[in-house]
Amino acid sequence: MTTAPRQTLRIRSQADLVTVIPYLLGFHPELCVVLIGSRGRHSDHRSFVARIDLPEPGSTRSAESAGTVLVETAIRAKLRTAALVVYAGAEVLADGGRPFVRQLTDRLTAAGTEVQEAIRVDGERWWGYLCAPRGCCAGSGHSIVPPGEPGGSALIAAQAVAEGWVPLRSRAVLAETLRPVSEIVFAAVDQALAELMERFARQSDDAVGAWRRLRLGTLALVEELLGKGEAGEHLALTPAQAALLLTGLQDRRTRDLCMGWTAGARGRAAVELWTQLVRMAPPPLGAAAATVLAYVAWQRGGGALVTLAIERALAHDPQDRLARLLADVVFGGVDPADCTPADWLAGLDRDELPGVTDAEAAVGAAVGARCA
Description:
Layout: E1 2-4, H1 14-25, E2 32-38, E3 47-53, H2 63-77, E4 81-87, H3 98-110, E5 114-122, E6 125-128, E7 142-143, H4 154-163, H5 171-176, H6 183-201, H7 207-230, H8 239-248, H9 252-258, H10 264-280, H11 287-299, H12 304-316, H13 321-331, H14 343-346, H15 359-371
């Protein structure tokens, strides 16, 4: 299942609704149901997006089970209104999906969520379920016109350009953006991690000072890299930089500070930075980096990227408390506006950062596991 927070968009028509979904999710969906809901009576800035796969033809899993998940999600998110978009050919669901949508609409209505729109998309065309009695969606349906093209939404096109949204071809293509780098790069990062730990060992008489310098060095490097990304420079982490960041993120306060950069061009650069670090993180050390990426992407409307990053974090460390908490919050339908970075993070006096934590043991264990 994929969830995504609200975006700053106005959806004025059925065509707008169909056009904007790939931008909200980050990819063009296939064989799934997308629910766009609002916590108000009308579409507003506190909206919510969820996507769940439909069963493949011949699967023993039923479409109704997917509907159950969406209903439970709507209840947890306290949605008052919703729109449903089914991505499937007319032959995939019985009678073109009309019984399925009717049942899902009834269940959502009974749960307190009014379904204001329901649409089916197949390839480059769409049909409305609720407008069927009027006959306006019969026959060949309506073409999906990309934003910016004649007949397409100029507003969505402008917003996509401003936010840097580029929906990828599929969820699998999006997943490739987090594909781990080669074992050669892993080995280089491992070597850099080992050298970093050796330097710490030589400073064992001043462990507090050594870890304080690590924290400040990590934050300084993040600020430097985000500044470059904000200025439009391509970010390319070296193994030594990756080792420093992976080590520094083991400290909870440093990690929390890094989660504070989510807005504007700096937030876009943060997604690029943490994506790159996740790809370079040798298991099991990447849980913190993937959790930071998931949180920043969630605050920025990262759609499926949020889910993929959470999955990567839990794959690195199934017991990571922050990753598990974030998974509960995201999949529980909590509005990211209710979980923004605390105001005190931006103005935190770094001289007040605490002393040695359990980071040294965590990093040492991870490096040892990889090098064993």
